[in-house]
Write a structure and sequence with these properties.
The strands form three sheets. Strands 1-2-3 form a three-stranded antiparallel beta sheet, with no helix packed on it. The longest helix has 19 residues. The chain is globular, with a radius of gyration of 23 Å. It contains twelve helices and eight strands. The protein folds into three domains: 66 residues, no CATH class; 49 residues, no CATH class; 109 residues, Aspartate Aminotransferase, domain 2 (3-Layer(aba) Sandwich), CATH 3.40.640.10. The chain starts with a helix and ends in a 12-residue tail after the last helix.
Length: 265
């Protein structure tokens, strides 16, 4: 990476070209092809080269990789105008579809007033969202802990479980995925993610997904040998493992009494 004046000037020129592209609603054929080549190059050189190797949108897209551009509702188009049905929804982010007019309108209205809170004064939106969540979540859950990613949510849950139970161990499932930060990565049940990072969290035990008997056996073993278990964490549906649904028997038979329940907060 260059730190001299020429490097800064190039960065300014590149950023202006990127902004010009962002401002456009439609792209010509040459612009679209340039954007595809630039996106593939940027991912390979500066972001995540693994995407280039295993994403079907790149490896099986023919002459030009599929680079998303715009969408409405349940469909979207790439920069070449090829249309797709969105069956992933940004891992749940697009639960109301692409560019829902009420969502876009609310975001635009807020951006014109304040794009982000100061972190010093009270901002009304976090309070509003926490209130709404308390009204619709089950049981007597009252407080919310807002984060920016799923792995942060798991890390927060791990800390809460350890603080409440004064125990440090966890039981998770084989092939489960819980995130890539240190604690949640330790819970993840796939070597391809765990092994390269040399995960530091000890006292984590993995059992087959959906096997209630294996969970209860691990809890008994943990008590026998003194490995105190703070919580059992599993996905209702394993996504990274291939959309595997937790069976009804496993859901019903895991004896929750063997793990001290967390307070409803």
């Amino acid at each position: 990476m260059s730190t001299d004046g020429d490097g800064l000037l190039k960065a300014l020129n590149d950023s202006q070209r990127y902004l010009d592209i962002v401002q456009k609603q439609e792209l010509g054929k040459s612009e679209a092809e340039w954007l595809i080549e630039t996106t593939v190059s940027n991912f390979a050189k500066y972001y995540n080269s693994g995407f280039i190797e295993y994403r079907k949108s790149v490896a099986e897209a023919g002459d030009f990789a599929a680079v998303e551009w715009t969408g409405r509702g349940a469909t979207f188009k790439d920069v070449l105008g090829r249309e797709y049905i969105d069956c992933l929804g940004g891992f749940g982010l697009f639960n109301l579809g692409w560019a829902h007019p009420k969502v876009v309108g609310a975001v635009q209205a807020q951006l014109q007033k304040s794009p982000l809170p100061t972190q010093e004064l009270l901002d009304p939106l976090r309070g509003m969202l926490a209130h709404l969540l308390a009204e619709i979540t089950p049981g007597d859950i009252q407080y919310s802990f807002f984060v920016s990613s799923g792995t942060e949510a798991v890390e927060g849950a791990m800390k809460l479980a350890k603080l409440y139970t004064r125990k440090s161990g966890f039981i998770a499932s084989v092939r489960g995925f819980h995130g890539k930060t240190a604690g949640s990565l330790s819970l993840t049940g796939k070597a391809i993610f765990r092994r390269p990072a040399l995960t530091p969290q000890n006292n984590v035990f993995h059992v087959p997904f959906g096997d209630a008997d294996a969970v209860e056996q691990q809890l008994r073993i943990a008590r026998e040998v003194g490995n105190d278990i703070a919580a059992v964490i599993m996905e209702p549906v394993q996504g990274e493992a291939g959309a595997i649904v937790l069976g009804k028997r496993a859901d019903a038979e895991i004896d929750a009494r063997q793990v001290e329940p967390l307070p409803r907060t």
